Amino acid sequence: MNTTQRLRVLIAKPGLDGHDRGAKYIARAFQEAGMEVIYTGIRQTPEAIVNAAIQEDVDAIGLSILSGAHRELFPEIMQRLRDAGGGDILVFAGGVIPEEDMAYCRELGIAAVFGPGTPATEAIRFVREHTVKP
Amino acid sequence: MTSGRKRTRATSEPHAPSTAATPDETARQRTRWEHDTVAPAVARQPERTGLTTGSRAPIDRLYTGADGAGRDEMRDLGFPGEPPFTRGIYPTMYRGRLWTMRQYAGFGTAAESNRRYRYLLEQGQTGLSVAFDLCTQIGYDSDHRLARGEVGKVGVAIDTLDDMETLFDAIPLDRVSTSMTINATAGILLAMYLVVARRRGIGWKSLRGTVQNDILKEYVARGTYIYPPAPSMRLITDMFAFCAAEVPGWNPISISGYHIREAGSTAAQEIAFTLGDGIAYVDAARTAGLDVDDFAGQLSFFFNAHNDLLEEVAKFRAARRLWARIMQQRFAAKRPESWALRFHAQTSGWSLTAQQPENNVVRVAVQALAAVLGGAQSLHTNARDEALGLPTEDAARIALRTQQVLAYESGITNTIDPLGGAYAIEALTDRLQAEAEALIARVDTLGGMVKAIEAGFVQKEIQEAAYALQREIDAGERVVVGVNRFRTDEAARIPVLRVDPDLERAQVERLQAYRAGRDAGLVAAARAALATAAAGSANLMPCIIDCVEAGTTLGEISDTLRAVFGEHREQVVV
Predict the structure, then answer these.
(1) Of all helices (H) and strands (E), which one includes residue B298?
(2) Left if phi > 0, otherwise alpha if psi is -120 to 50, otherwise beta: which for B349?
(3) Which of the four CATH numbers 2.30.30.140, 3.10.105.10, 3.20.20.240, 3.30.300.30 does domain B73-474 have?
(4) Rounded (to 5) percent helix, strand, coil in chain A
(5) Does A98 sit within 8 Å of B496, measured CB to CB?
(6) CB of A133 closer than 8 Å to CB of A7
(7) Which strand (E) or helix (H) includes residue B205?
(8) How many domains does chain A have?
(9) CA closest to A38 among chain B residues
(10) How far is A131 from chain B (nearest CA, A)?
C-alpha cells in the first residue's frame, strides 16, 4: 500500500471510564492492518476529540465508551464535528452500548456500533469499505 | 452418550503396582506410559494440539507425583491457618464461617442505591459493596463540566455528607461490613462514613469494612487517578496510620489484581503486579515511619476469578504462599498474621458475553467455584447482563443465589482446600509462583512498581498479553461459546437497567441546595487547613474529616488537594 494513501484513524475515549482494553486492541489491530492510528488516551472531552480529529486530518473516528454516558456525549461530538467542518469523517463506536441505543446512534450520524465480541477484522473491513481516499 | 472406545492395552509388560512409588520411579513409569500406552492411542486418534491455559501458558497432558519432586509438603503447603497459608489462612476455613457474599452494587441516587442494599441484605447477602459513579471516583461534584452524562451511571453519585447519610439510611453500620470501591477519593468517602457513624453514636472501633484505595493499579488498569504517584502514595500511608490508630477493624487498602486481569494480564502477571503493588505500599508505609507489624494485618487483596478453573485455583494458592514469603523474608514481619494474604474475589466481567447472555450464569458459577476452591474470604458474583449494562434486580439475585448454591449445596465447603495435593493443582501453583517471582524480580531491577509503571513496563506487559489473547479469539483459535462458536442469530433480548436521565438534574439541585445551606466561613477555614496540611507532612485524614463536618463537598476537597498536589497525566502506551 502506498503510504501517502494510508487511512488515518483516531481512536478516542470520551467520558470518564478507564476501560481501555478494547480501544487499545482496536488501535493496534488497525495499525497492523496498515492504517495510521492516533489513540487519544482515556477521559477525553468531546472538544478534545474533535480538535484531535481535525488537526490530525483523519478519515475515521472510533469512539469507545463503557460508562453509559454515550447518549449525552455522542450528540455533542457529532455536532462539534459538523461545526468544525468534519462532517465527512466516518464515525463508528464500540463499548457497552445497549441494543436499543443503536438506532439512536445511527440517527446521530454514527455509521456503525460494534458491540462486545465483534472481531477487529469486521471493524477494519467496515472502515475500509466506508472511507474513500482521493 | 455411549462410548465404543476400548481400554488401551499396554504393549509391554505393565509394571506391577508398587507400594511406595518414589518420584524417580513415577518418572520412569511416566516415560513408559507415554511410550507404551499414549503413543499408540495418539497414533489412532490424535490429541488436540497446542492446548494452553486461560493465560496461554502451556499445560501438560498429565501431572504425577514426579512433578512435585522438589516440593516439601510441610514447607510449601503446611496446614490451614499456618504459614505459608497455601491451604488457606484460617484453621477451619469454611467449616467455621463461610465467605462473605458481597455483591458490588450502586447506581443512580443514594436513595435508590440504599433500596438495593436493603433488598440484598434481606436476600441473605452478608456484606455491602458500594459502587460509586465515575465523578465521585475522580473527585468531581455532579455539577462539574466533566460530570455531564456520568452522574449515577456506573455507581451511586455522592457529593455531600447528606448523600452519604441517605446511602446508609437504616443500615446498621456497627453490624454490616462495608466495602467501598474508591481509590483517589478514598480518604473523603471514608471520612464521610466515619462522620455518619459518629452522628449515629456508633464508635469507630466497631466499624468494619474496606476502602479499595489502591492507586497504583489505577495508573495501569482502571483509570480513576487524580494526583501524581508521590502525593497519592502519601494519602494512602496517611490512611494506613489513621486506620491502625482510630478504626482498627477497617482495611485501609484492597490491593487489587482484579482490574489488572480485566485489562488483559495473565494469571502470573496478576499475582506479580498485585503483590508488586503490595510491596510498594509496604515500602512507602515503612518509609513514612510505620512498623510493618502494626499495619500488615489490615492489608487485604482483591483478585479476579477467571475462566480456567484449575489455573485460577492454583493462582490463589500461589499468591498466598508468595505473599507469606515476601512478608517474612523481604520485610521481616514478625507476626504470622502479618504474612497471611486475605482476599476478596470477583468473577471476570471481561469474560461475560453480550451474545446469549444466559450462558453467563454458567460462566459465573465456574469462576465462583474457583474462588471458593481457592479459599476466598469474600466474593462478588457478576450478573449475567453485565456485558449489556447494569444488572437488573433479577440478574443480581441469580448472581447471589449462585454463591448460595455453592455454599450450601455443593459440599465443597465441608473440607478445607479440597484440591490441595492434586498433582495438577500443585504443579500449576508452583509454576505460577515461579513466574510471578521472576516478574517481581524484573520489577525490582526497574526500581519497584512506581518506577516500572512510570516507565510503561507494566502497561506494556499487560497489553501484550491482552493483544495475544484477543488475536486468538478473533481467529477462532480460542473458543468463546456463543461468540465465535455455537452462535445463534437471535439478538440478546433481556431487560437492561436504565438510569433515569432526570437523575442528574435532581442530583445537581440537591448539591446546590446543600452548598447554599452551609456556613461558608467554616468551609473556607476547613479547606485552608487542609491545604496547609497537604503542603506539609501532617496526616491528612483529620483535616479531611473536618472538611466533611464543615459541609465541604467531595469535589471541593479534591480541588483543594489538586491545587497543592497537581494532577496526573496519562502516559499513553499502545
Answers:
(1) none
(2) alpha
(3) 3.20.20.240
(4) 45, 20, 35
(5) yes
(6) yes
(7) none
(8) 1
(9) B574
(10) 23
| DSSP H or E stretch at residue A90 | strand A90-95
Rounded CA separation B157/B6 (Å) = 64
Q: For an interface test with A, give the residue of B141, B145, B146, B154 to mutate (most A CBs within 10 A).
A: B154
This model of the complex carries an ipTM of 0.92
Instruction: Show Cβ contacts of residue B376 under 8 Å, excluding neighbours closer than 6 positions.
Output: B99, B303, B305, B316, B343, B344, B345
* Domain enclosing residue A56, as ranges: 3-130
Q: Which of B570, B571, B573, B567 is nearest to B184 (CA)?
A: B567
* CATH code of A122's domain: 3.40.50.280
What residues of A are in contact with residue B496 (Cβ under 8 Å)?
98, 100
- In Å, how far are B135, B307, B463, B571 from B456, measured between CA atoms? 26, 28, 11, 8
Which chain A residues touch B355 with a CB distance below 8 Å? 117
Q: Rounded to an integer, what distance in angstroms lies between the CA atom of residue B29 and that of residue B21?
A: 10
Contact B223 A117 (CB under 8 A): no
Residue from A10, A13, A24 whose CB has the most chain B CBs within 10 Å, to mutate:
A24
* Residues of A with Cβ-Cβ distance to B389 under 8 angstroms: 68, 96, 98
Provide φ and ψ at B300, rounded to 5°. -135, 165
Q: Is B436 exposed, middle or buried (0-12, 13-18, 19+ CB in 10 A)?
A: buried
B460 phi and psi, to 5 degrees? Answer: -65, -45
Q: Give the pLDDT confidence of B373-409 residue by residue, as tens digits.
A: 999 999 999 999 988 888 888 999 999 999 999 999 9
Poorest-pLDDT segment among A2-16, B189-203, B370-384: A2-16
Query: What is the Cα–Cα distance from A28 to B250, expressed in whole angstroms?
Result: 42
B178 residue type, one letter: T
A-chain CB neighbours of B387 within 8 Å are: 96, 116
Where along chain B do its domains lie? 73-474
Query: What is the rounded CA–CA span in Å between residue B174 and residue B118?
Result: 15
Rounded to the nearest 5°, which phi and psi values hold at B312? Answer: -70, -45
Report the side by side order of strands in the sheet with B127-131: B250-251, B208-211, B177-181, B127-131, B100-105, B378-380, B343-347, B299-305, B253-256
Residues B477, B480, B481: CA angle, nearest 5 degrees? 125
pLDDT tens-digit series, residues B12-69: 455 555 556 788 999 999 999 999 999 999 999 999 988 999 999 999 999 999 998 8
From chain A residues 72-91, the ones with a CB under 8 A of any chain B CB are 72-73
Mutual angle of helices B267-287 and B457-474, in 10-degree steps: 160
CA A55 to chain centroid, in Å, comes to: 15
Q: What is the pLDDT of residues A109-120, one digit of tens each?
A: 999 999 888 999
The count of CB pairs under 8 A between chains A and B is 101
Residues of B in contact with A43 (CB under 8 A): 138, 146, 223, 570
B378 secondary structure, DSSP code: E
Q: Hey, are the CB atoms on A72 and B574 less than 8 Å from each other?
A: no
Q: How large is the average pLDDT for residues B80-84?
A: 97
- A contacts of B466 (beta carbons < 8 Å): 21, 24-25
